[in-house]
Design a protein that fits this description.
By secondary structure, the chain is mostly helical. The protein is built from 13 helices and 5 strands. It has 2 domains: 213 residues, Rossmann fold, CATH 3.40.50; 81 residues, Tyrosyl-Transfer RNA Synthetase (Orthogonal Bundle). Helix 1 links the parallel strand 1 and strand 2. The structure holds tryptophan.
Length: 329
């Protein structure tokens, strides 16, 4: 069976972009593939998170994943740092990563340019840690966004190099999992770009009704069409894109018709949009809050995930060490 794996850094809460971009697909995929979903807390250390916030941010994502519908009994849901085998494998795989190629990685160059005061070695070898995450479970399919494609390519390079060096085939070369038409890019509410955690243009799964309404009502619009069937500017198209994923098809059609006949009132559209977003996210919000109160449950989930992930990781680590020449005394 194909093995699917994906990691997410614990920085900020999940927003509608995460939900429609990946999470909703993960929820379906967990029943169709052997899935590993994890929180990449080690990766997030490159930016030195505040110790007081660190644990909470990991807990939040775990609760949000569970509340949205990931089933820890079905998928393997774990915290990266709970798998010590990852750190050991990372040391081994670092020996197959060359400084020059790491320095040429786009994400490294970007981060080094943005934060010249914190160009640490962990940042440089970030792609090696990511390759470790993938290869240690011998995942074949990795759902990644555009920004992670180069990292995935690097995992293939490391896999190939290791396999060639030792004349083995223990590491399959992971491919991108393409959601195809299931992948919906969610725009931000500020009229440009996509919904992101840092851009402050997002609606979060944990937002309450008042916050959602306020954010939607504040979304940027223009003064409305003046000619029938006129071309829609991007910020209006964005509202329709959102509506398309949360509202009923006839609701979307109703507002499209209104737009095309120049009778649209953006206030009405936004009110409907906010209501339909709330219908989707408020039940998830309730569950997040419930789950976050239940430390026993979270501990059980984390332990179960660690147990399953460690079993798979240890198997690969043992084999890799054997290839390298480690022997028991
Ligand atoms: N680097 C990924 C990101 O920032 C997170 C991540 C870490 C990951 N390890 C992974 C994603 C392994 C897929 C597979 O989004």
């Amino acid at each position: 069976m194909e093995i699917v794996l994906s990691g997410i850094r614990p920085t900020g809460n999940l927003h509608l972009g995460n939900y429609f971009g990946a999470l909703r697909n993960f929820i379906k995929m967990q029943y169709e593939y052997k899935c590993y979903f994890f929180i990449a807390d080690l990766h997030s250390l490159t930016t030195h998170p505040k110790p007081d916030d660190f644990h909470g941010s990991i807990k939040n994502i775990l609760a949000e994943y569970l509340a949205a519908g990931l089933d820890p009994e079905v998928a393997t849901l774990f915290i990266q740092s709970h798998i010590p085998e990852v750190s050991e494998m990372y040391v081994l795989l670092n020996m197959f990563a060359y400084k020059g190629e790491l320095e040429r990685t786009v994400s490294f160059k970007e981060k080094a340019r943005k934060h010249p005061d914190n160009v640490n070695a962990g940042l440089l070898t970030y792609p090696v840690l990511m390759a470790t995450d993938i290869l240690i479970h011998r995942a074949n399919k990795v759902p990644v966004g555009k920004d992670q494609e180069q990292h995935l390519e690097y995992s293939r390079i490391i896999a190939r190099r290791f396999n060639n060096m030792y004349g083995t085939s223990i590491f399959p070369e992971p491919e991108a999992f393409n959601f195809g038409s299931d992948l919906i890019k969610i725009p931000g509410l500020d009229g440009n770009g996509k919904m992101g955690k840092s851009e402050n243009n997002g609606i979060f799964l944990i937002d309450d009704e008042k916050t959602i309404c306020k954010k939607v009502m504040k979304a940027v619009t223009d003064s409305g069409p003046t000619k029938p069937d006129s071309h829609m500017p991007e910020m209006i198209q964005n509202l329709f894109t959102l509506m398309q994923v949360v509202s009923a098809p006839d609701t979307v059609q109703y507002f499209r018709d209104k737009y095309n006949s120049c009778e649209i009132r953006y206030g009405d559209l936004k009110k409907q949009l906010a209501e339909d977003i709330c219908k989707l996210t408020l039940p998830i919000r309730e569950r997040i809050i419930e789950i976050l109160k239940d430390d026993d449950y979270l501990r059980r989930v984390a332990n179960l995930g660690a147990e399953k992930a460690r079993e798979s990781a240890l198997k690969t680590l043992r084999e890799a060490k054997k290839c390298i020449g480690f022997k028991e005394f």
